[in-house]
Amino acid sequence: MMKNLPLLLLVLLAVAQFPACQSIYDSIPDFQSARERIKDGDAAEKKEEVNKIVQDFSQMRPQWHDEAIKTVDEDKTQVGQQALITLMDSSALKKDSQRQEIAGRLIDRDEDGSLEALYEVAQNRDELVNEELIGYFGEKRYKPSIPLIKEQVEGDKFVPESINALYRMQDSNTNAYILEDLGSKRDKPDTRLLALQTVESMEDESIPPRAVPVYEGIVGKYTAEPREVVVLAINGLGRWGNQSTSYEALRAVYENSEDEGLRETALAAMGSLRNLPPEAIREEYETALVDMDAALELIRNREREEAKPPEPEPVVGEPVRKPVVIRPPAYNNRYRAVMASRLAQAFGLVLSKWLQNRVDNAL
Q: Given this model, what pLDDT does residue 224 score?
């Protein structure tokens, strides 16, 4: 007997650490009976049964927590709602999934007070925050939740759901955050692209003036930016841009890009800004290029003539023949401006001015 004493003490110690369950809810029949009382009882009986489950929750075996949650949810009154809120924040819950399930039930019930309770618990329990909860905050335009949602985006969690929830808030400051903060995150290309795509759907009057410089910055660096971001920015300028700086940014893409699809997108945006079809813009360019080619050919001919050795002096008494000069038709100011721009791009400012003077002299 004495030899077995140490073993006996270990068994007794183990039993002391795991006492017998003292809960009155310890089987499926227990919860079935409780659900019947909640379903068929009067208001007082329903309240009494729900409160008993809540009070007994910490004494239950964890395996019965799911049944307890389902049973409490049978009470569709404020008593049942408050019971779910209490269980959602209970330290007796060991599984994040159970806490999220309770939140989902409260969202489905959509009762007064649930929104605020969900937000309050979520502030202290990160495990409660998921796609469903973020979407609920956005659907209800619950603005106190904005900092919590921003925190998810910054932490690269639930990014699509969070950006959509922020957009649904219909708040000018939040829209500016999507455009200027998230839309400039080059180190997070997926977040940035999604943010800029979201901006396209905004009907906030404060956004276009803010968006134009962002878009111009992207288009101005189109060779260093992801193509899909550049396309978004070009389309944005076509919709909200101006005929000065925005048009020049688009023109640079059309004239210099080797990406034919990008050039066509820029051309369409230029047409939108001038309220012209793209073909009209293209025709202007083709005409200007023909005129410039003709002017450059005049320069080359003049330079060739100047490079020729001087003709011998005519013999005295022999009549001097004057060469016949064929002058080209006059060029309007628009063509001259286009030519000046193209010359500057091709040869630099100083040389282009010299060339333009030569062209003017030739004309």
A: 94
Query: Among all chains, which residue has been given the structure tokens 């793209």?
Result: 278
Listed in sequence order, the DSSP H helices in 59-170 are 65-72, 78-88, 96-109, 114-124, 131-139, 146-154, 159-168
DSSP 94-113: --HHHHHHHHHHHHHHT-TT
Q: Per the structure block, which two tokens stand in for 354?
A: 């010299």
pLDDT at 118: 98
The kind and range of the H/E element at 74 are: none
d(CA 350, CA 353): 5
Angle between helices 114-124 and 146-154 (to 10 degrees): 40
Helix (H/G/I), strand (E/B), else coil: 254: helix
* CA nearest to 337, candidates 288, 296, 270, 300: 288
Q: Measuring CA to CA, which residue among 107, 112, 110 is closest to residue 129?
A: 107
| pLDDT at 67 > cutoff 60 | yes
CA 345 to the chain's CA centroid: 35
Closest C-alpha to 173, from 137, 131, 206, 124? 206
Tokens at residue 16, please? 């002391």
Identity of the amino acid at 236: G
Average pLDDT of the chain to the nearest whole number? 85
The tens digit of pLDDT for each residue in 314-360 reads 666 556 565 554 545 555 555 666 677 776 666 566 556 666 666 66
CA dist., res. 112 & res. 103, Å (int)? 14
Q: Give whole-number Cα distances, 194 to 55, 190, 207, in Å.
A: 46, 6, 16
Residue the block writes with tokens 């659907």: 139
Q: Return the closest-CA partner of residue 180 out of 206, 209, 211, 201.
A: 211
